[in-house]
Design a protein that fits this description.
It is globular, with a radius of gyration of 27 Å. A hairpin with a 2-residue loop joins strand 7 and strand 8. By secondary structure, the protein is an alpha+beta fold.
Amino acid sequence: MPTHYPAGTRRATIPVPPRARRALLAAAAVLSLSAPVRADDAPPALTGAAAWARLVGNTVSGTTPDGPYDEVFVPDGTLAIVDGDGKAGGTWHWRDPTLCTRVDGEDDEECRTVSVTGTTGAFTDAAGSRYPFEIRQGNAKNL
C-alpha cells in the first residue's frame, strides 16, 4: 500500500545493506514472539528444602524483636550466630518442612519454615511470626 506524503515534502530514506536488513528483521521477529516482562513478574519464592539449600553455607542477616543478628549455617550441621548477646555456636537440622536450630547453652530448639526469593527470605515460626532476612554469599561476617 503506497504511503502518501503532503505535497512539497520529501520522503527521507536511509540506505540499509541487505545483510543488516535481514538481521533487523530476524531480531524484530524474535522480539515479537517473546512474552512481555512486567515489573510484578517476580520469580516465585522457594520454600522447604529448596529454600533451605540456598542458605546452607551462606550468611543470613536479619532482625528479630531482640535486635539484629548474623548467622551462618555450616554444611556439617553446625551454626554460628552473632547478635546483641554476643557470638555463639549451635547446631541445625532439617526436619521437613522446617529448619530446627539449637544455640549452645540454650535448652529450647527453635523450628521454623523458610522461604527465599533471590537474596532475601524469611523465617516463619509456629505462631506465624515472620522474620525477614538477607542472604550474603559464604561466611560474609567471618563467624
